[in-house]
Specification:
alpha/beta; five-stranded mixed sheet; 33% helix
Length: 183
């Protein structure tokens, strides 16, 4: 496992803390790593309408006494592309630029039409080094519901049923007999 994968795995762990509270937003975790390979800040998106993971990670680092000088030498990891538009909160990509981060590592791009590569473009314009696609499959899996909605304009659906080994879910009924259900 590479260093980037290790910290992205931590982002995914943090993101799961928002399960059930972030809808309609995705699950996002963020980790800030110092030039000395130490985690100096962590955060996740807690609830829709509240600060995103990147903001919470920066606030965590600032509470510990870190500032723009530390961020200028640090890498911020986030499992989903930082947002680039103002909704209920300001854009995270702009905050990352303002704080002066040296590098940004992104798990996967955001398919939302208001983001969709624009967050990464903001970082590029600012001259910030960035990497996209670290543990991309795992990042996509975590937010499969969000991605299905934005890519296919439909909900993510899970079907469940029981069947016999020969593929039936109930026996054929004859003469108005009550069927014997499998489950």
């Amino acid at each position: 496992m590479t260093t980037e994968e290790k910290y992205m795995q931590r982002c995914l762990q943090l993101a799961q803390n928002g399960l059930g509270t972030t809808y309609p937003n995705p699950l996002v975790g963020s980790v800030i790593v110092s030039e000395y390979d130490e985690i100096i800040g962590e955060g996740w998106h807690l609830k829709s309408g509240e600060p995103h993971a990147e903001v919470n990670a920066v606030r965590d680092a600032e509470k510990k006494g870190y500032d723009e000088d530390a961020f200028a030498k640090a890498t911020i990891y986030v499992n989903l592309e930082p947002c680039s538009h103002t909704g209920k909160t300001p854009p995270c990509a702009s905050m990352i630029v303002q704080k002066g981060f040296k590098k940004v590592v992104v798990g996967t791009l955001d398919p939302h039409d208001k983001v969709a590569g624009k967050g990464v473009a903001l970082l590029k314009e600012a001259g910030i080094e960035f990497v996209v696609g670290v543990l991309e499959n795992e990042c996509n899996e975590l937010n499969k519901r969000f991605f299905t909605f934005h890519r296919k304009q439909r909900p993510y659906i899970i079907l469940k049923w029981a069947e016999t080994s020969d593929g039936f879910i109930a026996p054929e009924t004859k003469n108005e007999q009550k069927p014997v259900w499998i489950t």
